Structure formats: C-alpha cells, structure tokens
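User: Quick sanity check before I run a bigger batch. Here is a single chain. Can you write out its predicted 3D structure?
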Amino acid sequence: MAGIDGERQRPALGIVADDLTGAGDSAVKFAEAGWTCEIALADVPALAPGTAVALVTDARSMSDADASGRTRAAVETLANSGTDLQYLKIDSTLRGTVSAQIGGALEALSARAPDAFALVCPAYPAMGRTVECGRLLVHGEAAVGRHGEAPAVPGAVSVTLGDAAPAREADRLRALARESRVLLLDAASDADLDRVAAVAEELGPSVLLVGSAGLAAALARRHAGCSVAPGAPTALQTRSAEGGSIVVAVSSTHPVSASQVAALGSHVVVITAPAEDVLVDGVRSERAAAANVAEAVEVALAAGGVRALVLVGGDGALAVLARLGAHGVRVGSAVVEGVPAGTVRGGALDGLTVVTKSGGFGHPGTLRDVIDRLEASDHPMKKRTE
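Assistant: Done. Predicted structure follows.
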C-alpha cells in the first residue's frame, strides 16, 4: 500500500492462529521485520499501517464445526478492524482441524471477495518441515499424524510454482482455483517460500495465505523495505526483578517437552501438572492440565521475585495469561529460532517478560538455550527495551 510521497508502507496485518504459541512464533517474524505486533486477548483496536494483531482461536482441538465458526469470527473481527492483509497460522505438521479452519476463514473472506481461495503452505525449512510433491516431510521423512496416517489437507490441489514471473504464476493459480478453492503449494527452501509470498502479493485481497511461521517469515521479508506509518506505537518497557527467578511453566505432555525440561538446571523454577492430578474419566485432560499450571503460576508470581516467565504449550500459555487478566502480549523478538519473547500487557503480569514455546518444538537443548539467553546481559528483550 502507498504511503507518504508514494512510498510503500507496511500493511495493517491480521493473524488468526489456532493456538497461542503459534500466534507468537508467526507474529515474531513480523515484529523482527518492523511491524508493531501484539497478540490480543481482549478487544482488537482499529489498526494502522505497520501494526499487526494476532487473534488466538484455540481451534486446534475443537470439533470441525466449532473450529470453522471460531476461525470465521476471528477473520471477520480483524477485517472490521481495518486489516489490509490476513494470515491464517496453522501447525507446520498439519495437526488439528486445519481444513475446518480454512473453510471458516474462506467463508468470511468470501463476503468481501467472492472469488477468494486459499494458498496453503505449512513448510518451515529452518525447522526441517518441507512440502514436496504435495507431501509434508519432516527432516526428509513423511510426516505421520496422530492415528498413524500422513496428515493431509482434504480436497486441496497440489501445486509446484514454476520460474515464471509472479504475475503469470498468479494467473495460473487463479485458473486452478476454479477447480478447487484450496491449493497446497510445494516449498523446500526459504527461496520457495519467498516465491509463494511474491505470487500472493500479485493475487491481492482474493487470496487467503495459510501456513506456519516459515511462510509468515517470507511474507514479512516481502514487506521489509516498506516504510513505517507515522505515529506507530513504540515497544513496551519490561518489568524486571534483577536476580529473580525464571519460571518455566509446562502444560505440554509432548516427549520433546519432557526431554527439554530434563536438561534444565536446578536454579530454574519448573511448574508442571502431574498426570494423576488432571485425569478426566481416566484420561489426561489437556485443559485440566493447563488450568492446574495456571493456578501454580499465579501462586509463584504472588511470592514475588520472578524475572521472566517461559510458557511451554499453547493451552497452558493461554490459561496462564487469561487467569492473570492479561489483555495481550506485545511481541518483541525471538530468543532462539521459533521461540518468541515479548512483554505482557495488562493484568497481574503487566510488563513482565514472557516467552512462549510450542510443546513439540525444538531439540532437547532448546529450553536450556532459551534460559541461557534470558540470563545473558544481551538477551533480545533487553536490547529492545533499554
């Protein structure tokens, strides 16, 4: 979009994410490229160019009907707030109600653009997730879903972009979209994702971009040279407790989370939900685990001396922030790849540094790396707020 004297400005951006950690790992890509980004947990204000807001639908574990409706409502909310561009953030391994979310988002977008269709690309090459010949691969191996089958996007047409100019490729995709409103694009590198972002820009408001943090990063790079709107909000200041504890709150039961917690030192306060305490009809309840973790975090914060909060698992992260009355999280920068840091806005946590991480994300030393960066004098949040 054009700004002063015809100079391009960053658009007002809306992100719809199916869990809180996903909202953070996509929003941080735009924050690092110059947008003022916030994960909104309360009302969404009117957006100016160069600002971005992420809404969390919590749709990943919902029924298809609920996931579709929640996603449709989020897209409508962001559109009414003045977004120029919307991004639907899904899991990079296609977990959850992906098709239902796409359907709900397209329903909302079609009210403004009747020919709307979705470009889906969950690839995140930096984390080993690629899409090749319509197949999702993780470190070169076929991804496997919860029930043992390869995850898929039902009804999607698989597409590989060619070397033609973006405008020509956009015309080809429009033609394909007459057969299917959902196109699954191959991408095995960041250069492939950059090509997807360039073609999407040619398609304009009729396209819904759907992907993980990988495609979000490509979209952010596409607008990196744009100007910032005058009067754009500045970063929040962090609240610090020098020498205080770093609290790691883990609601995820993913084996990756367990290995990461095991690698932490004893000087870190770790909060988890014991399996026996969160059984519902004999089965572990993720929501019960999240509620228990949130209650324990509230107790830890009341005792004081907390320097930063690391939330592992989307359900728990949302439960903690909601319990303590947060209005949102101002997203700053990544502590390590795929793990964003920010500052809490509103409630009992106002101004506190918070890090969010998906439970299944990273290697066994990822949480240890996060703690090391937070303890270092030059960690990213200090750089942004001093």
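The chain is about 35% helix and 25% strand.

User: Great, the batch can go ahead then.
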